[in-house]
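Colleagues,

For the teaching module next term, I've prepared a clean inverse folding example: a structure given as tokens, and then the sequence designed for it. I'd like students to try predicting residues themselves before seeing the answer, so please don't circulate the second half yet.
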């Protein structure tokens, strides 16, 4: 019966899925935000949340966080690959994000364009900034739509170095 429940759940829209006792879900990832049917974002997932991502059909995991023993999993790349997913690590320095980081993110997103993808960093700040820029450049999002995604975790003016990068890249679009 357990397999039947999992198969039935995978056919339902996310808003109709109820969690079974003891079962982990990606929506429990810190600062989780589902952007669309294909893109999930959040902070650092646990091993159990990575397992849930694989069970929910995620095929690619993009990590924008730097390696920090305090927050990072011991071997996230090995865990993700062991679950049959593709792992992409683009370590974006919090204190000095670069346009090259966004270019690498853009390439990773295009490589996974047809796959369900989990994009994470430590707390979903880097991710929402980059996904909002990607949305404007590739999905036709307005500035307001991009701002709405960032507002999920950001407070305007809170991190000037990020405000400058986002503004600079938006001006080029």
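(Answer key — instructors only)
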């Amino acid at each position: 019966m357990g397999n039947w429940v999992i198969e039935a759940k995978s056919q339902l829209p996310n808003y109709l899925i109820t969690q079974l006792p003891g079962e982990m879900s990606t929506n429990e990832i810190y600062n989780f935000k589902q952007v669309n049917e294909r893109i999930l974002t959040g902070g650092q997932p646990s091993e159990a949340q990575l397992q849930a991502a694989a069970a929910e059909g995620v095929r690619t995991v993009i990590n924008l966080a730097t390696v920090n023993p305090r927050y990072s999993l011991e071997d996230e790349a090995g865990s993700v690959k062991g679950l049959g997913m593709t792992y992409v690590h683009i370590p974006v320095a919090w204190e000095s994000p670069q346009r090259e980081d966004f270019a690498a993110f853009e390439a990773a997103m295009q490589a996974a364009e047809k796959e369900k993808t989990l994009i994470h960093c430590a707390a979903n700040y880097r991710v929402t900034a980059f996904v909002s820029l990607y949305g404007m450049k590739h999905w036709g999002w307005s500035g307001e739509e991009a701002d709405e995604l960032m507002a999920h975790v950001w407070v305007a003016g809170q991190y000037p170095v990020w405000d400058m990068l986002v503004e600079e890249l938006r001006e080029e679009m």
